[in-house]
Specification:
The protein has 10 helices and 12 strands. By secondary structure, it is α/β, with parallel strands linked by helices. The chain has a single domain, classed as TIM Barrel, CATH 3.20.20. A 12-stranded mixed sheet has the order 7-8-9-6-5-4-3-2-1-10-11-12. Helix 1 crosses helix 9 and helix 2 runs parallel beside helix 3. Bound molecules: guanosine-5'-triphosphate, S-adenosylmethionine and iron/sulfur cluster (2 copies). The site of guanosine-5'-triphosphate (GTP) has 19 residues, from strand 2, strand 3 and strand 5. Pathway: Cofactor biosynthesis; molybdopterin biosynthesis. Keywords: 4Fe-4S, GTP-binding, Iron, Iron-sulfur, Lyase, Metal-binding, Molybdenum cofactor biosynthesis, Nucleotide-binding, S-adenosyl-L-methionine. This is GTP 3',8-cyclase.
């Protein structure tokens, strides 16, 4: 079992397979970075898998593949199959913008993927294009349908940004409710890579939008395996809000992150990281295990977004870290 320096059990590994992306979301990567990580610096799937095996052997129960846009990296279904074949009872999931799903969904399911979280910020084509800075909505909706048809369990992620898609909250919720998908609204996490001036809705503002149509909803006891706080409408439908600005958000943190370059990141807010690249490339499994334990020992207690009234801005890029 993996325990961090604050006594929290860590059983969730997020693996970013690429920092590249085919969208330029305003809250994440509004402009193409000055340079991408050169291909030779990326860990191969075989090397990423060596680390995942270490992590699973040490107690990781949930593995999520993310990015950048993970579906841009060729052979993702084969990578997923490697993990599935190693331990098929792992909660094996993917986070994607959905654009490449129309072709990929069935292959991912066949490879052993169990769940998929797809970003959908608006059902208005112009608004969706404004956020992603590309005409995306029609293809993303086809991608969501393809994932549904393939039998993948779907969650939708939506980041409401003031003045852009903040009035779309109810429409996205109703779409998900009708389709039987779980929706989570994510508070925008201030970071230096987002578009200047971007401001998100906070949890209370999101709830206000929901209550315009659904007056009564109750808080659901927090399931600490997921970052979302769920709320239940009178008809039983549950929606989530990811509230990283709340003081106690991090108290149940069960996550660590591995980037495509082989950096192990203890917290989404901070720059701290340790590389496992040399260890896995040299097949030094004991060394990789020691680095994992060291990163957990030093995992911060909480982020700084929660500093009241004056939110701090993180310098960590979400597209590199995997969100
Ligand atoms: N601050 C913070 N935000 C997180 C953390 N984990 C997830 N998030 C935010 O929630 C977003 C959605 O996460 P997903 O990739 O869908 O994964 P998840 O919410 O863990 O998924 P489930 O396993 O389905 O609950 C991330 O991109 C982040 O924006 C975390 O540890 N800290
Ligand atoms: C970094 S993306 C990677 C996976 C994929 N490209 C996608 O968009 O789903 C993972 C998640 O991070 C969220 N995200 C990105 N930047 C964010 C920010 N500044 N604040 C909150 N969530 C953010 C996205 O909405 C998405 O749900
Ligand atoms: S949120 Fe996802 S889709 Fe949007 S730019 Fe970031 S990595 Fe790409
Ligand atoms: S901000 Fe850091 S400590 Fe808090 S939940 Fe996210 S990764 Fe964990």
């Amino acid at each position: 079992m993996l325990i961090d320096g604050f006594g929290r059990k860590v059983d969730y590994l997020r693996v970013s397979v690429t920092e590249r992306c085919n969208f330029r979301c305003q809250y994440c990567m509004p402009e193409k970075p000055f340079s991408w990580v050169p291909k030779e610096n990326l860990l191969s799937y075989e090397d990423l898998f060596k680390f995942i095996k270490v992590a699973i052997d040490e107690g990781i129960k949930k593995v999520r593949i993310t990015g950048g846009e993970p579906l841009l990296r060729e052979g993702l279904d084969e990578f997923i199959k490697m993990v599935y074949d190693y331990k098929n009872d792992i909660d094996l999931a993917l986070t994607t913008n959905g654009f490449l799903l129309p072709k990929a969904a069935q292959k991912l399911k066949d490879a052993g993927l169990k769940r998929i979280n797809i970003s959908l910020d608006s059902l208005n084509p112009a608004t969706a294009s404004k956020i992603a800075q590309k005409n995306v909505l029609e293809t993303v909706l086809k991608g969501i349908q393809a994932a549904d048809d393939a039998g993948l369990k779907i969650k939708i992620n939506c980041v409401p940004i003031k003045g852009i898609n903040d009035e779309d909250v109810l429409e996205v919720l109703d779409f998900c409710k009708e389709k039987g998908y779980t929706v989570r609204f994510i508070e925008f996490m201030e970071n230096h890579h987002a578009k200047d001036g971007a401001k998100g809705l906070n949890s209370d503002e999101i709830k206000q939008r929901v209550s315009k149509k659904y007056e009564n909803f109750e808080i659901v006891p927090r399931d600490t395996s997921s970052p979302a706080q769920y709320y239940k409408l009178e008809d039983g439908y549950e929606f989530g809000i990811i509230e990283p600005h709340k003081d106690d958000f991090c108290s149940a943190c069960n996550r660590i992150r591995l980037t495509a370059e082989g950096y192990l990141i203890p917290c989404l807010y901070f720059e701290d990281a340790m590389s496992i690249k040399d260890a896995v490339r040299a097949n030094k499994i004991d060394e990789a295990t020691a680095i994992l334990k060291k990163v957990l020992e030093d995992k911060p207690e909480k982020n700084k977004w929660s500093v009241k009234d004056d939110n701090e801005v993180s310098s960590r890029a979400f597209y590199q870290t995997g969100g």
